[in-house]
Write a structure and sequence with these properties.
- The protein is of the alpha/beta class.
- It has two domains: about 170 residues, Rossmann fold (3-Layer(aba) Sandwich); about 70 residues, RNA polymerase II/Efflux pump adaptor protein, barrel-sandwich hybrid domain (OB fold (Dihydrolipoamide Acetyltransferase, E2P), Beta Barrel), CATH 2.40.50.100.
- Helix content is about 20%, strand content about 30%.
- It has five helices and 19 strands.
- The longest helix has 22 residues.
- The model has no long low-confidence stretch (mean pLDDT about 95).
Length: about 260
């Protein structure tokens, strides 16, 4: 199957990583949970879990059983398999494993999971947990490769966009089933009811474009990130990979090529 890169997680940042590796000729396999929580669903390969097939820009992802992986790769597709604990990583023997879950902690990625292991953002220390940590915080160091140390600790505050930071992200106030009245790409006005959880209204905290929202009917828990509003009102941003995801994806490709070269030195 050639050089295989496994990516844990299929959200928007992971999808940016998948594109860089896919275009560079790697066979890319995405591992997901049975109920992905990515909100930027139109640019997340994890959506294949719900739709069975997901197209993001020039990539097609297919929900696969483990015995379908090789054929999907042969067809230049990206197989998405439900494997939240990365149990298939050892069986596949990938060149690289990228933890792109962005959980702010290590959910079980081990350095011996692949020849090259990479962790995105806080929760990993190189070289103890992984070979390379990649900085995910916006700013001067975004995409920096860290071979000794850790990324900037989680600030728990989204990066500002047009002067809005925490206001642009919506979290579930209670547990319950999500009933959405809007879809990704819709314009929103401040105070507009975009969804309900049970009998609780979910208003838009700012005006803009709905860039992401969990699937209708999703069983939320209190505090779960459920939606994201782009205050810039950029409709195209809802359906294309972000600058941040492309930058981090490029850093992942750089890290793999650097570590592979070092193994031959």
């Amino acid at each position: 199957m050639g050089d295989i890169a496994i990516i844990r997680g299929g959200g928007d940042i992971a999808t940016g990583c998948a594109q860089k590796l896919h275009r560079a000729g790697f066979g890319v396999i995405v591992l997901e949970t049975a109920h992905p929580t990515a909100i930027r669903r139109e640019v997340s390969l994890s959506e294949a879990v719900y739709r069975e097939m997901m197209i993001v820009e020039d990539m097609t992802a297919l929900l696969c059983e483990p015995d379908e992986i090789e054929f999907a790769l042969y067809c230049k597709k990206i197989p998405v398999i439900i494997d939240p604990c990365a149990e298939w990583a050892s069986a596949i023997k990938p060149l690289a494993l990228v933890d792109a879950i962005l959980a702010k902690k290590n959910l079980g990625t081990r350095k011996d999971a692949a020849k090259i292991t990479i962790g995105l953002g806080p929760g990993f220390t190189a070289p103890e947990d992984v070979d390379v940590v990649i900085e995910t915080m916006r700013g001067h160091d975004l995409g920096r490769l860290i071979t000794h140390g850790a990324a900037i600790p989680n600030t728990a505050t989204p990066a500002p966009v047009s002067g809005f930071a925490a206001e642009r992200v919506i979290y579930s106030p209670i547990a319950g089933s999500l009933r959405s009245f809007t879809k990704i790409g819709d314009s929103t006005e401040r105070g507009q009811i975009i969804a309900k959880i049970g009998d609780t209204d979910i208003p838009a905290p700012i005006s803009g474009i709905l860039r992401g929202i969990l699937p209708d009917g999703f069983d939320c828990w209190a505090g779960l990130k459920l939606a994201d509003i782009d205050p810039c009102g950029d409709y195209r941003s809802c359906f294309t990979i972000s600058d941040k995801a492309r930058c981090i994806g490029g850093a992942v490709l750089e890290a793999i090529m650097m570590k592979r070269r070092q193994s031959f030195d």
